[in-house]
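Quick start: read one record
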Amino acid sequence: MYLLSLILLATQTTPAIAPSVDVTRPMARALREARAAIASMPGTWRSMELALWDAQRESTWSEVRLARMGARHLPTTPPEPLQQGDPADSIYRRARQALNRNDYYLSATLFQEIRSRHPKSAYAPDAFYWEAYSRYRRGGEESLRTALSLLDQQQSQYPQANTRKTGDARSLEARIQGELARRGDEDAARVMAEQARMAAVVAPASPPAAPGAPAPAMAPTPRARGATVSLTGRQRRDACSDSEDDVQSAALNALMQMDSERALPILKKVLARRDEGSTCLRRRAVFMVSQHETAETEDILLSAARTDPDPEVRSQAVFWLSQVDSPRATAALDSIASASKDPEVQEKAIFALSQQESPEARRALRRYAERTDISDDLRGKAVFWLAQSDNPEDLAYLRNLYGKVSDPEVRERILFAIGQSDDAGSRQFLLEVARSQNASLEARKKALFWLGQRDETTAAELGSLYGTFADREIKEHVIFVLSQKDEKAATDKLIDIARREPDKELRKKAIFWLSQSDDPRVAEILAEFLEKP
């Protein structure tokens, strides 16, 4: 009976949709368009990391793709603390500060503390959202699934929470589901496909914000590389914005028009200041120093990175050291990444090392990928930048590292990084993981998904793989991966499974994904199933 219902649903005529309502297109088409958009931007990985430098790579891609489709912006900064005397007020302030400096692990931990220790606090209802948002930005499959669970709990326990009224919680949930689907999660992809079908029947307007609800705080638009400040420490930057017109700022800006010999001595004096009123000036000065390529530039940036009391100045100095390719800079960046207690500075040091051409810099990145005493986020960054290298030895190293590490999240990040590579050895590696009986089920599914995303992997190859597997869950995943290939052979294999597969559940899966296809043959095939007794 379920098969009959599924076929009937698949053959229903979908009303025409206005071209502007992209989110109501069937899932298969949306996924193909997303892949095409990414495929057309092969050179933007590095520039995006620079421009959105503090974001986790998985959620950054999601946000960029959604922005391209005109999706609503999510609030990224919690409201100002207003509940004086609230038992969770001090925790909320710390959580808010952590989120504003992109320390997503700490912010998630603190928002979790609010909801678990102070459930009656005025901050508790929206703490679920902000913890979920923090985990979403951290990335990683476990974090994404936890974030979804938190939003479910919020809906159950605090349906009147402000982030529920504004629709932000639902938007975040959709983005998390989309990210999981992009990573190969069949359940998430199915949810999105069903939601797309429902939206296609009636395309609802965006619900208005509840009367009297405050507008969600919006983050300022990030500035591209070359702006006079870095893209992190949002509130610290904003605190400097009021001094743009003062005499000292004008004098600093005028230095940009001077030659290096005259400008650098003055900039060095500015950076040597330690009075409270000089903080914003030093932030501008460190950028200006980076734009003057002299014998002293490296020394000045190294000094600022190591000794300036302001985290933003240190962070910027580390960032601009990425443009200085020398043994001293490499050693200094390695030392900063090892000794710093600031995750933001460590992250930028790892990025800066990735921009160095020396073998020492590559060895340093490999050490960070192997370390177990740093966060998974930092190890993931090292893995990511190694995968962006043009050096085939780095990819070979990552493939070898995969078998040595035991942490599931690090292994997932390695698989993700290798999955983005066009290297021929990476394709063979993914195939071996997918076939391995010793690999975990999730790892095999991930390898299958990334294998299917590669242009050189044909639907015929995936179809032949299907017959080699005995595990039902793996076979289900092959069906899903086949559904994402825009090839006639993929549809042929799904039709074959729907007709001949002995397992009824697998036939149902094949029929569902066939229903998402825009292949003109599908309607006839589904009608054929209906005509059978």
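The first helix runs from residue 2 to 11.
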